[in-house]
Amino acid sequence: MRELTNLLAKYGTFTKDELRGLVTDGDPEKLSLRAVEMLCKFRAWHNYPTLITSAYRDDNGTHGMGLAFDQVLYSKWKKTQPNPFELWRIATTFPFWGVGMYFDWKVGGEPVVGLHTDISQESNRPLRWIRQNGVYYYEIDHLVFQSNKETVITLKSAIQNYGRTH
Q1: Beta partners for 98?
Q2: CATH code at 66?
Q3: What pLDDT sits at residue 90?
Q4: How far apart are CA 150 and CA 152, in angstroms?
Q5: From CA 161, how far away is CA 166, in angstroms rounded?
Q6: What mean pLDDT do residues 4-15 have?
Q7: What does the alpha-carbon distance between residue 83 and residue 53 come to, in Å, rounded to a whole number?
Q8: What is the pTM of this model?
Q9: How many CB atoms lie within 10 A of CB 12?
Q10: Pairing between β-strand 127-132 and β-strand 135-141 as defined by DSSP bridges
């Protein structure tokens, strides 16, 4: 825990409120220090207030390996978020291996656009996806996504759908 605390203090980018998901959703000792350092660099780079909603959890994916974070970026703390295109640009420009954007998350009962970021290199290329209404769509071309049911959507249409319903 000391190494994690020292690393967070070194960067000093997060407030206590922003980090609630590090300690309420599993054992922070199981987080990769390299993943935490990437998260700190990401937060310092984009400079948006960032709520960590989940980090390590007992699963078979990147969270279970201690390599992933779920987060919500705000332009005004818990009030407004940057435009979803801006969120996508920020997350996919930074050198994360996995980036997912979720249009069906809620924080405190309020709808938000959530981000998953990870540093796992289990796949042979970076993985990008969005989730809308519980359905995952994986990037097959720049800003074009396809579900396992062969449905194709664009990031623009996902954002428009989110805007109509929220």
Answers
A1: 118, 127
A2: 3.30.1380
A3: 93
A4: 6
A5: 9
A6: 83
A7: 19
A8: 0.89
A9: 10
A10: antiparallel
- Does the pLDDT value for residue 6 go beyond 90? no
Task: Identify residue 163 by its one-letter amino acid code.
Answer: G
pLDDT digits (tens, 9 = 90+) for 74-107: 999 999 999 999 999 999 999 999 999 999 999 9
Higher pLDDT, 124 or 111: 111
DSSP state of 110: E
Torsional sign, CA 97, 100, 106, 111: positive
Structural domain that includes position 70: 2-134
The answer to whether residue 2 scores a pLDDT higher than 90 is no
* Tokens 């990401």 -> residue: 42
User: Is residue 154 situated within a structural domain?
Assistant: no
In-domain check, residue 74: yes
142 in a structural domain: no
C-alpha 68 chain-centroid distance: 8
Domain count, the chain: 1
pLDDT at position 5 is 83
Strands (E), the chain: 50-54, 68-73, 98-107, 110-118, 127-132, 135-141, 144-147, 152-154
Please check whether residue 139 lies inside any domain of the structure: no
Residue 15's contacts (CB-CB under 8 Å, 6 or more residues apart) are: 49
Strands 50-54 and 68-73: antiparallel
If you average pLDDT over residues 2-18, what whole number do you get?
83
